[in-house]
Amino acid sequence: MRISLNETHDVALRSWVASANLAGSDFPIQNLPYGVFRCKGSGESFRAGVAIGDQILDLRAAFESGAFSGFGEVVHQAIVAATAGSNLNPLMELDAATWSALRLALSTLLRDGSVHQSQLESALVPQAEAEHALPAQIGDYTDFYTSIHHATAIGKLFRPDNPLLPNYKWVPIGYHGRSSSIAVSGQQFRRPVGQTKPPTSDTPVFGPCKRLDYEMEVGVFMGQGNAIGDAIDIGQAESHVFGLCLLNDWSARDVQAWEYQPLGPFLAKNFASTISPWIVTIEALAPYRATWTRDAADPQPMAYLDSAELRAGGAFDVQLEVLLQTKAMREAGTAPQRLSLGNFKDAYWTVSQLVAHHTVGGCNLRAGDLLGSGTLSGPTPESAGSLLELTAGGKQSISLANGEKRIFIEDGDTVIMRGWAERDGLPRIGFGDVAATVLPARSL
Amino acid sequence: MRISLNETHDVALRSWVASANLAGSDFPIQNLPYGVFRCKGSGESFRAGVAIGDQILDLRAAFESGAFSGFGEVVHQAIVAATAGSNLNPLMELDAATWSALRLALSTLLRDGSVHQSQLESALVPQAEAEHALPAQIGDYTDFYTSIHHATAIGKLFRPDNPLLPNYKWVPIGYHGRSSSIAVSGQQFRRPVGQTKPPTSDTPVFGPCKRLDYEMEVGVFMGQGNAIGDAIDIGQAESHVFGLCLLNDWSARDVQAWEYQPLGPFLAKNFASTISPWIVTIEALAPYRATWTRDAADPQPMAYLDSAELRAGGAFDVQLEVLLQTKAMREAGTAPQRLSLGNFKDAYWTVSQLVAHHTVGGCNLRAGDLLGSGTLSGPTPESAGSLLELTAGGKQSISLANGEKRIFIEDGDTVIMRGWAERDGLPRIGFGDVAATVLPARSL
């Protein structure tokens, strides 16, 4: 049931969109990620597009040009769904074979030598002239906790004697998040306010968050869902996934510490979350699979969380970079500075395990639902995906090249996340930047 | 900013729908709750209705009859919104003054002596011939933990030395829930399966839940929301609430015990939740306000959680009854047996405090969002809103009148919840039954 490599993955493919062939582009013809956009500042309705080089192929314009007419009924069904509304939910509700047929059509149309080039050139919009909206109506958002390195590091801060709880290696720990406050890259949001309890006080205080942090995550956009009461078998799980995005799950650490017992994070996480403009499909990521193993000393996964395919490469090798651009850096024209570099393959639980676990009790997933990986920290200090880890719980500040220091995020800071897969002999494919900027707290 | 009593609350009002005037009806003319229905087994689209006696006023049919034409622009706007689609979200997005105008129009139309009686008789559908759908598209579902009696009882089971955590009396504890698996009364769902860890074992096992429980809650349907980054002031909070429903937040206690640390309940709660078919508006509940106080020995609420109106009657006096009908009882024609009787006024935090807290950090609420009160247990043993409490953590079985015993819910059991407000000199207004039945687990 796993997507095979096919002609759309061919490293030799080149596009007539010249910028797609430049080394270092996130969007060569082997990628073809989906997003929702319109021309910046226009009153146009948002619509689906596919990133190619520094351009966006406007799917509605492409469809109306007639370019998709020769590809048969399945592709027709897919392009009708992709252009039906202002989000990708109708396309997500279709199945993996249909998505694959549309990808092949897009690859064919955008290749060097396509007879449709002149027809499609007018359906291109420069990315620099576009603004994005959420690619899907997100019915429910679930956040997991898949990095054992992150769970251990955080656990040490809260429970020095017992960092990793006994369930961690058995259960893909997850919790429900807030969908209303998820926005696409470019989000600007006010520093949250709330109750916190200073360690020196017996009673809480009220005011702006003082320990504002980001979390570097991968997001999983669900495709076709399951009926309530049914479970998605792990062998089928990936075929229910439309694709992956990047996700910054903003966190108010001081609010979290005071509120989270016994039912988990609430206001600490629901004021903002930011995702990448582009969803990279599972099919595009197929050449970048990584080995997934479980140490012999660890519990092996229960049957519903295990499969031969998982063992043969259930992880994805996606590099994950976090950068910071402070207000001073922005004003001085200084480029963002890297804070960390990690990799999705270091997660303890894979995408297919998350889907199988989420549904095993009968919970229904719907097309457009978003699953977060949880903070992806790797085994090394420089791969930690949050400031809480990089600053040892807020105890060691980070020195920036311009002389500034940071422990947590300050007003005016922009956090930028990037993710890409690349391997010898294969092109780099990426997600585009996730950028979000923190504004001062509202006046109290 | 609080709804005043007005002519729609007049105890002397009677309806030309005769069943609305019978003592003990949940739906006298002073109630007028909203739901979404269609004729049972029909292929009709679901549409909005108002319960009156044992009938439903089909709002679309009533609107098309022209009965609303004399009420002016605000009522016109409200009835257009109420009949625009297959859920109440468009009506919920309007403001409290508009809801109030529509209520007055409905009250006028349904009163004894209304000139519109003959016009509206054909817009009535017997409740016995109707089936319901969710009244709103629920964007996000949040569950709180407002009963200090419940929190203390549960805390004793998990932490005998430290039942109530230090944050409880300061923070209205809440967490995000799952919206996809919420359904209306009549829901039948499979017993969930999942990982649990028996106390006698070092490692978890996989199989059907053995400690399936209900939770008696009140649900809060949000009206007009707030922009992200803004907060809803507690003085304005109730005007953002469309109304209340009853909510059964089904819980797999054994799954919960193993999975819930450190991020809260997940699969233990997301397999099913059941709500009442009817939403009773805040305006209808206005005569049934109850005093809200805070013991002098307890921390007083922070400013954002306090107001003069809260102190003057921020709670609602709504009785809450849980009944059980086992398969054997159903087959023998035995009526459901009461398990508990509690009251919403015993909650530690009020509706307006939940709305103010939810938004204080900038989280945006949207019309149609659902907030749950958390299990509403009162101060006495017989007012406990879950089996976990009624059976002392599963240690003492409950004897039913037909000789059966229960510790937790068994396959084929139907749990029924009822809620109503009544006071000397005021009519009883209610929510209708919430019934849901547990089916055997899927085969593994």
Question: What's this, in brief?
Answer:
2 copies of one chain form a homodimer. Chain A has 12 helices and 27 strands.
CATH class of the largest domain in chain A: Alpha Beta
State the largest interface.
A-B, 69 and 67 residues
Distance between the termini of chain A: 55 Å
* Helix vs. strand class of chain A: alpha+beta
CATH architecture assignment name of the largest domain in chain A: Alpha-Beta Complex
Can you tell me the residue ranges of chain A where pLDDT is under 50 for at least 5 consecutive residues?
A: none
Structural commentary:
- 2 copies of one chain form a homodimer.
- By secondary structure, chain A is an alpha+beta fold.
- Chain A folds into 2 domains: 7-133, SH3 type barrels; 141-439, Fumarylacetoacetate hydrolase, domain 2 (Alpha-Beta Complex), CATH 3.90.850.
- Chain A is built from 12 helices and 27 strands.
- Chain A has helices at 59-64, 73-82, 89-92, 96-110, 117-121, 148-158, 253-259, 282-285, 308-311, 327-332, 351-360, 387-390; strands spanning 34-39, 47-52, 55-58, 124-126, 130-133, 141-144, 174-176, 182-184, 188-190, 193-196, 205-208, 212-213, 216-222, 241-248, 251-252, 273-275, 280-281, 289-290, 315-316, 319-325, 337-343, 370-372, 398-399, 405-406, 414-423, 426-430, 434-439.
- In chain A, the strands form 7 sheets. In chain A, strands 6, 7, 8, 13, 14, 16, 17 and 22 form an 8-stranded mixed β-sheet that branches. In chain A, strands 9, 20, 21, 25, 26 and 27 form a 6-stranded mixed β-sheet that branches. A 5-stranded antiparallel β-sheet of chain A has the order 4-3-2-1-5.
- In chain A, α2 (73-82) crosses α4 (96-110).
- The radius of gyration of chain A is 22 Å and the shape is globular.
- Chain A starts with 33 loop residues before the first strand and ends in a 5-residue tail after the last strand.
- The model of chain A has no long low-confidence stretch (mean pLDDT 97).
- At the A-B interface, β7, β10, α7 and α11 of A face β7, β10, α7 and α11 of B.
